[in-house]
Design goal:
Blueprint: E1 3-13, E2 17-20, H1 21-27, H2 32-39, E3 43-46, H3 53-68, E4 77-81, H4 92-100, E5 106-110, H5 116-129, E6 135-143, H6 153-156, E7 161-172, E8 177-185, E9 193-195, E10 208-210, H7 212-234, E11 243-246, H8 251-261, H9 272-275, H10 282-292, E12 301-308, E13 312-319
Parallel strand pairs: 4-5, 4-6, 11-12
Antiparallel strand pairs: 1-7, 2-3, 6-7, 8-13, 9-10, 12-13
Bound molecules: oxa(dethia)-CoA.
């Protein structure tokens, strides 16, 4: 019998403070018109005092567990994707574990920037299928506002903070669950999207730097390729896909990728307008929106995809 990791619950959490484009236009030389036309972003959430990657992640987990009808003590694996951990160490996954009151389980962070949730999901899926875990919390959580250069209009308008989580549980012999995942990385493009600091180099946290136009160009090609790849591995054709939940970096990237695959825009979940780019949190945040508003239903065929710094990129196909 095939053992698969099935999504039992989804949850998300956003900081209290919502910031619209007009508010940013007071700080840097930009405009609502430019941001909306070039990116589709209208608002983003920015973490305030007491709100961190781990606190947002823990809240997203509580909501996902409630939806799954499970207690924290039933979880035996936590994989948290982030590029903005609360501290260099211990991992934010162990902080979330403590916040949820779980005494003993496997817990670690995965770092693949905007592709982090796909990497985390893939690792948790493999551990569940191998029998190393029976239930998992897979989280994407970020506070990118804390690594932005708030004087650089080319980047500070693009990102936001938030967290999303899914509860996975092993099931034998059913049709639901993660069908296939594909991951990629090409470190030769590390200087296109990076943070100019770190514990082992400058001893500082650093600020995000990006060559936006080059990232854009690579994103459309890589995302279309990996989507085709994951569909092939899962034995699906694009017309069998009910929903695509893409990484929310730019509405133009999402449109161009969907067009390349011949997917109609009605089947693509778009939340970049309200969340902006929340890096590893963007896919589970968007998934939660589409589950809660009733678009994604049990049994639907869903494809997730993301691309980010490294470069890293990946996709997953699942029956929800
Ligand atoms: O999540 C990880 C993956 N990240 C991404 O996928 C991001 C990919 N890149 C993008 O989304 C887009 O490249 C951006 C949104 C970052 C930029 O859009 P673009 O259409 O590629 O603009 P551009 O960088 O070519 O800049 C066009 C112009 C420039 O002015 P000049 O040189 O033509 O006079 C920029 O200085 O727009 C200017 N500009 C701005 N103007 C007003 C850049 N940022 C702003 C701004 N407000 N915030």
């Amino acid at each position: 019998m095939t053992r698969r990791a099935v999504i039992q619950g989804v949850g998300s959490a956003l900081p209290q403070r919502r910031v619209d484009n007009a508010e940013l236009a007071v700080q840097v030389d930009t405009s609502d018109e430019w941001i909306v036309e070039r990116t589709g972003i209208r608002t983003r959430y920015i973490a305030g005092e007491g709100e961190t990657t781990a606190t947002l992640a823990a809240e997203a987990c509580r909501r996902a567990l409630a939806e799954a009808g499970m207690e924290p003590g039933e979880i035996d694996l936590i994989v948290l994707a982030t590029a903005t951990p609360d501290q260099t160490f211990p991992s934010s996954a162990t902080k979330v574990q403590a916040m949820l009151g779980i005494a003993d389980c496997i817990a670690f962070d995965v770092h693949a920037v905007c592709t982090g949730f796909l990497y985390a999901l893939s690792v948790a899926d493999a551990m569940i299928r191998a029998g190393n875990a029976s239930s998992a919390l897979v989280i994407g959580a970020e506070t990118f506002s804390r690594i932005l250069d708030w004087e650089d209009r080319g980047t500070c308008v693009l990102f936001g903070d938030g967290a999303g989580a899914v509860v996975l549980k092993a099931e034998e012999g059913g049709t639901r669950g993660i069908l296939a995942t594909r991951l990629h990385a090409d470190g030769r493009h590390g200087d296109m999207l990076y943070v100019d600091g770190g514990p082992s180099t400058t001893g500082t946290v650093g600020k995000l730097r990006m060559k936006g136009r080059e990232v854009f160009r690579h994103a459309v090609v890589n995302l279309a390729d990996v989507l085709n790849e994951v569909l092939e591995v899962a034995g699906l054709t694009s017309d069998q896909v009910d929903w695509v939940v893409p990484h929310q970096a730019n509405a133009r990237i999402i449109d161009a990728t969907a067009r390349k695959l011949g997917l109609s825009p009605e089947r693509v979940v778009l939340t970049v307008d309200r969340h902006a780019n929340t890096s590893a949190a963007s896919v589970p945040l968007a998934l939660d929106v589409a589950v809660k508003d009733g678009r994604i239903k049990q049994g639907d065929c869903v494809v997730l995809e993301a691309m980010g710094g490294g470069f890293t990129w990946g996709a997953a196909a699942l029956r929800f």
